[in-house]
Amino acid sequence: MKDIPNNRRGTLSLHWYWLQGLLIAGSVLMAALLWKDIPPTLTTHYNLHFEPDGFGDKSWGTVFLLNIVQLCLLVTILGTNAVIAQTASAQALDKGASEAKQHKFRFVNSVFLYGLSLLLTAFFSYIQATMLYGWPNEALAAVTVVMMVLVVGGIVGLVVTVRRLGLKGQSAGGDGDGAHWLAGGGLYYNPKDPAVFVPKKYGIGWTVNFGRPMGWIVVITLILIPFAIVTLVAVML
Known about the structure:
Elements: H1 6-9, H2 18-33, E1 41-46, E2 52-57, H3 60-86, H4 90-94, H5 99-133, H6 137-164, H7 174-178, E3 181-182, E4 187-188, E5 197-199, E6 206-208, H8 213-236
Antiparallel strand pairs: 1-2, 3-4, 5-6
């Protein structure tokens, strides 16, 4: 089958994510080049007042921990974006949702995911720089507040955009008025639907089709990622 460009599938091209990759690579390169200037004891945790309350010796684990988190986040969002680009719910189309609205719905979600990924990647790089290079904690507090405001603003903007464009309800759920939705519309199970991700029945965003094996793989992977990071950190520290 002929490949369809991402912009026609309704998602941003994966090429946009090179910026996050460059941010991560730049953070790693700077830490490597300035290794000798990094203090032997590093702050590893801040309390609610943004005062250091956890410390650790300089090691590959403490220095590059946040870069590992960045990479895990980037891979997760890249995977989500790629799957959304390649799948469209058969049930949503059966319900009469126009292809144009499906395209817009996927694109709006893709833009939100990209913005969230870029924001969090830059934020983790800033935290890393504060830990390694002695940047002021007061500035970190201000940056954290700005980041939280931007995230909340992005979520509100996504909701408003979806409602304004009339995209609410572009979810799967035909075939018997939600016969494939379980747990009050919270879970979607339809082995005949080729889509791995489907728009939520209520609200905005996407959920997993538990009727597809790949859906279970996605869920299990997302659950295992935090445990893998914790285990890796424990080994590296």
